[in-house]
Structure formats: structure tokens, C-alpha cells
Amino acid sequence: MSVREDLADRMPGGDAGLIVAVLLVTYAAYVLVGVGLGYSLRGQLNTIAVLTFYIGVFAMLALALNLHWGYTGLFNIGIVGFMAVGVYVMALFTKPIYTPGGAAQVGGLGLPLIVGIVAGMAAAALLGLVVALPALRLRADYLAIVTIAMSEIVRFSFLSSDLQQFQMFGNRVGFGGGSGLILDFTDPLQALFQSVGLWGAYLGFVDAFKAIVPTNPKPVVDGLVYGLFLLLFVAAYYWLLKRTGESPFGRVLKAIREDEDVANSLGKDTNQFKIKSFMLGCALMGLAGIFWLMTQGAVTPNFFRPRVTFFVWIALIIGGAGSNTGSVLGGAVFAAVLYQGPRYFKNLVDTVLPAADAPSSFGPAIAPLISNLNPAPMFFYTVDSIRQLQLVVMGLVLIWLMHNRPEGMLGHRKETAAGIPLTAAHARAAATDGGTAKNAANDAADDAATAGGDSDE
Amino acid sequence: MSETDSNPETETEAFGSAPIDTSSGPDTTAEFPLQVDGLRKSFGGITAVDGATFQVESGTLTGLIGPNGAGKSTTFNLITGMLKPDTGTVTFNDEDITGMEPHEIANKGLVRTFQIARELEDMTVLENMMLAPKHQRGEKLWRSVLPGVRGEVIEQEEELLERVWEVLEFFEIDHIAEEYAGNLSGGQRKLLEMARALLTDPDMLLLDEPFAGVNPSLEKRLLTHIHELREQGYTFLLVEHDMDLIMENCEHVIVLHQGRVLTEGTPADIKSNEEVIEAYLGGNV
Ligand SMILES: Nc1ncnc2c1ncn2[C@@H]1O[C@H](COP(=O)(O)OP(=O)(O)OP(=O)(O)O)[C@@H](O)[C@H]1O
Ligand SMILES: [Mg+2]
């Protein structure tokens, strides 16, 4: 149908090959630009680490959203609320117990990180259940309203002074209010390596890395390793959601997306399926939120503004709703081009033309362009405001996509909702070695008859 | 198929349908599996169904006829839980199913098809068909995902596919098995819908104009098949505008007019009933 489809089909290694190829092209582009402009090796490695980080989190979030929207047709625009609950509950469980005079205003329960992560995911799933129960019975668009309202309620709750600190099991805990929460638990990477007894080995590796980055290599290595860790989790999400989709469970989800009444009148308890799908997606969003923030040292409620939700939606739309491979690609492309791209571009311009002073407002920027056709001030002004413009660019890309390729990169591809290949050839083969097709009428009747008697035996 | 259905796991119980103990074939404990009593439903000013009362005898092919807008499809919707009646009751196999959810009613063995075929358009014909069978192990999320148990799901998928294929061949739509349902012709959609409903192993099927747009030779084959199933004890309620078809195939006919049962009886009775002739030919009585 299109060049892209052909590309996907011809790609060695299939979908995985396609994903790897896109990642490699992205990295190559970043590295090439960096090399061309004389970035230091350390700077290059840091750029790659940050890029990988965002590819990881956006790919995970897009995959989780794809379960909601692409598979089940659930219009969730409160993603960031589930991320917030995941992170905050994880912090509550994991932060060390409060000691008076310490740096942190409030403590946590001092439990191991893994317990906190599981608790955060469970809390996000439970919130999903609470949101879904009333909304799923209503028309689809009510879920949208309820979820976005929920995400703002969550943000305001964490902002409120009532939850700033409270007692729990005799400990002074809390969510820190507007000033945020210090994530003063053991560094997650350290905790991870210690839990498998490899912390010493890791430190040795960091030391060896001095050959490449002579001074203080640990932050660089940490960033790269964490990025790799996130990519592993992208693979895990992908695996989980692929199995979910390619199964009778996924088939019912797909049927719900297509026409819930039909699924219902074929005996499927569609509300049950919707709730399960919604809760699973919410838990995965909570986990992605945890991964996004647990290494950042602190968390503030205002990080969780609805714009993050819309970033994830844009990633999914770019990649193509309905396709897991598309979700990963969408996450990667969004992170590399729309999210990190403009910032990288600004850094480049700053490096190449460090002396250039940007005009401070639109007037001085546009005047030279009109009066003597000098575009430079306008250019620098634009680059300087790139963070603000980023949203405009995203909007333009979205409009363009909606007009020209609403199915995104891979949304036109339909991933079969079954545990086995649903092809005529496969079916024919199964039918010929399983029984005779010639007496299908009686067979069908017998099947029906046996089904009536499935309560005995 | 018996391996599929006598699956030793607990799903059957989990369904909560607790089928009234049957050893084989459809549930024939009730002489009149379907009983509709005083069913009423209005939409704003229109009373679509106005106190319809009738029952369908076990193992029959019963016709439900009436002019356009008589309330036949609405009655189907009320019976199958798609709409909740204003008043009245629906009883299936001696159990009051009024107000139950459509999936609960379907799992009790009362399954319907839609007048305007409702396909799952972005799913292939095979996917549409594979959706229908009950008691699918893989409908439990954990079974579909966890490495150890997924094998059982795959095994059942293979069995289901085999059965699905036989039904597709019978309905002569196997050549479009991989086609997206959204690309099918009107008649093909009707066939797919009926085949899909049959795969749920219903005791009783409510068919809303299943032959509209189906070619005559296939219509004949389908009717033959329906008669075979009927002889085994399955019950059918059929909405159809083709009077000849009704007269030749049904042993009992119910005439609905303005939401009420105008009359019912054998095809011969109906044929000679002046009210029916008037209702069909003379517009409002
Ligand atoms: N959801 C609805 N909202 C409003 N009015 C409805 C609705 N469904 C049905 N009606 C009205 O109820 C009446 C009965 O409709 P119904 O579809 O049951 O007729 P029918 O007997 O199936 O007709 P046909 O033979 O044309 O299919 C019609 O007047 C129709 O306009
Ligand atoms: Mg009708």
C-alpha cells in the first residue's frame, strides 16, 4: 500500500528489525550532527543517554495507551494522573523513615524499591478501576472527561497542603505539597545492581570507563545504563502487550473497539474485559511514570500537567494506534524529533553561534526582517523560544498527520487477534487433519450439541 | 470439539451460567423455552412494542411476521437485553431473564442476529468467527499471557479454528476467510453473522431477517440446516418478510401488528386470516 508498509515487510528481522533500524538511524543522525559540530565525547554520550531515556519512557507510555485506545477503544486522556499516582505511591513506600533534622521534610515507609514499584503500579491500577467503574457503563466520551478530570484532581491533591504530611504506621510521611518530594531513597541503579550482587562489578566497569571518559565517568555510565534498562522494559511491555493482543482476550478487546453490542450479544461480559484492559494499561502507565521520575532526585506535582498526556497521544498517533510496533516507533520518533529534537537543535545553534544575541521580544526580531530583509534576528528569536514553539510544532505535525496519514506509521497494519495464524491455509490444514469437512452441517450440529452438555464429565 | 468444551478448568463454573443440568443437545427441559408476557416499550411518543405476549415451543421454527415498524426488531432487542422493557417479562427455560445483560442472556443459550448485519469491520472473517465460541480459555488474561499456561490456549485456538473452518465452508464463505468483514457484501455479512451466532452453541436462535440478500440456493441450504438443527431440539424464532418462505418452513407463525400480537397459528390458519391480510395489504387496521 505504501512505501512504509513495503519497508516493514522487507525489513530483515520483521518488526523487531524495523524498530532497531529506526533507532539506529535516529542515533546516527544525532551522533553525526554532534560530530560535525565538534561535540565532546562526553557530550555525545550524554545526548545519547538522554535521548534513550525519552525514547524509553515514551515508547512504554505509547504501548500502554495503545492497549487502551488502539485495542479496546478506551479514550484515556488522563495518562499523566496514573503516572503521578504510580510515582507518589512508590515514593511513599520507598522513602526512608523520617528522622528529625534530616534533609527531607517527610519520610516514607522505608521499604525496598521493588515493593514501592509494585505498590505504585497497584495504586495506578486501582485508580483506573475507580475511574472506570462508573464511566465504562456510559458512552465512550464520558471516559475521556472523567480521566482528564481525574488527572487534574490527582495533581491538585498532591499540591494540597492537606496531604503534605500525615502519619502512617507511626511514621511521618506525606506527599510534600507544592514544594515537591525529595526522592531520597537509594539510587535505583545501585539498588538494582546490589539486589543481584553486581554492584561491585558495576563500579569496576565505571572505573574502566575512565579510558573513554577520563573525569567522573559515573553520571555518563549511569545515564547510558539506565537508558538501556528502559529499553529492556520497552521490550518487556511489547512482549506482554503482544501476547495480550494475540489471544482470545485481545480478540474480545478488538471486538469491543469495533462494536461492543456485538461482543455483548455473543456472550462476552464486555465491562469485565474493559475494566481488565483499563487496569492493566493504568498499571503500565504508573510504572512508566515511576521509571521517568525515580532517578530524578525529586518530584513535584506540576510535572504532571495534562501536556504530558498529549505528548503520549501524539506519540501513539505518529506510530499508529492499533499496532504495538507502531507504538514503539511512534514513541521513538516523537522523543527524537518532536521532544528532544528542538532542544538539541537549540543547543547546536548556541554552540555554533555562541556570540549571537537573540532579540528579547518579537518586535525587535521582526523589524529587521521587514525593513532590510535581515532574517537573522528573527531566526535567533525563534531558536531562543524553541521550547514554547515546540508545542506549536507538535500541533502542526498533528494536523498534518490527521489530514494526510491519520493511521500513522503502522496503524493501517492490523495485527491478528489470535494465538495462532488466522489464515485460510492454516485453517484448511487444521481441518483436513482434524476431521472431514464434507459433513460440516452435522459437525456443526454435533459441536453445538456437545457444548450443551459441557457441565457433565 | 468435546475436548474444548469439557475443559477441566473452572471456567464453566466461573461463568455463573450454571446450565440447567443437560447431558446432551440443547436444553429441552422447558416445553416453551421462550415466553414473552405483556412486553411494552415506548420511545418518546411511539409505542414500539405494546403488550406483546407469546411463547415459542421447543424444537420449532417459529415465524414472527408483521408489517414494517410492527415492533419485531424491538421485541428481539427486549428479549435479548439490548433494551430494557418498560413493563412485561421474558422467560427463557423457565428462568426470568427480564432486564439481564445481553451477555448473560447469550450465555444462557439465547442468541440473536441483527437485522442490519453488524460485523466487526476491522476484523477478518476468521477473527469474527473465532470470537464467538464460549468458554475460551484465553479469554482469561493471565492464561493468555503467562508462559506456562499459554500452550493450552494455543491448543484450544487450533481446535476452535478447525471448527470455525468447517462452519465457514458450510456457509460458503471460506473463500473470504482472510477478508476484513468491512469489505464483505450485504449477503456475505448476513451469512457471517449467522455462522458466528451458531458458533456460540446456542439453544435458541433469534434470526432477524437472516435471508435478506442471500442467494436462493444458499438460502435453501441454510433452511435445510436450520431444519436439521431443529430436529435435534434447537429452537428458532425467525423474522422474515417473505411470506412463502414462512408458510413453507415454519410450523407456527406469530403476527405482530403495532406492537401487539394480532394473531398466531399454523401457516394455514394465518393464510386464511382476514386480519392478517388486512394488516399486510391494507395498512392500518
Ligand atoms: N431506538 C429507537 N428509538 C426510537 N424509535 C424506535 C427505536 N427503535 C425502534 N423504534 C420505532 O419502533 C417502531 C418499531 O420498530 P421495529 O424496528 O421494531 O420494527 P420492525 O417490526 O422490526 O420493522 P421492519 O420490518 O421494518 O424491520 C418503529 O416505529 C420505529 O421507528
Ligand atoms: Mg426489524
From TrEMBL, chain A:
GO CC field: plasma membrane
Domain of life of the organism encoding this protein: Archaea
Primary localization: membrane
UniProt signal peptide: none
Transmembrane segments: 16-39, 45-67, 74-93, 113-133, 140-158, 223-241, 278-298, 310-339
GO molecular-function term, one example from the UniProt record: branched-chain amino acid transmembrane transporter activity
Pfam families recorded: BPD_transp_2 (PF02653)
Membrane-related topology note: Multi-pass membrane protein
Subcellular location: Cell membrane
Sections of the chain in a coiled coil: none
InterPro entries for this protein: ABC_transp_permease, LivM-like
Region feature Disordered, mapped onto this chain: 431-457
Entry keywords, A to Z: Cell membrane, Membrane, Transmembrane, Transmembrane helix
Keyword Transmembrane helix tagged: yes
Protein name, entry field: Branched-chain amino acid transport system permease protein
Lineage: Archaea, Methanobacteriati, Methanobacteriota, Stenosarchaea group, Halobacteria
TrEMBL record, chain B:
Alphabetized SUPFAM superfamilies for the sequence: P-loop containing nucleoside triphosphate hydrolases
Stretches assigned to the ABC transporter domain: 34-283
GO CC aspect terms: plasma membrane
Compositional bias ranges of the Acidic residues kind: 1-12
Domain of life: Archaea
Annotated segments matching region Disordered: 1-32
InterPro entries per record: AAA+_ATPase, ABC_AA/LPS_Transport, ABC_transporter-like_ATP-bd, ABC_transporter-like_CS, BCA_ABC_TP_C, P-loop_NTPase
Gene Ontology MF term list: ATP binding; ATP hydrolysis activity
Keywords: Amino-acid transport, ATP-binding, Nucleotide-binding, Transport
Membrane-spanning intervals of the chain: none
Chain's role: Probable component of a branched-chain amino-acid transport system.
PANTHER family the record matches: CONSERVED COMPONENT OF ABC TRANSPORTER FOR NATURAL AMINO ACIDS, CONSERVED COMPONENT OF ABC TRANSPORTER FOR NATURAL AMINO ACIDS-RELATED
UniProt family annotation: Belongs to the ABC transporter superfamily.
Protein name stated in the entry: Probable branched-chain amino acid transport ATP-binding protein LivG
Organism: Halogeometricum limi
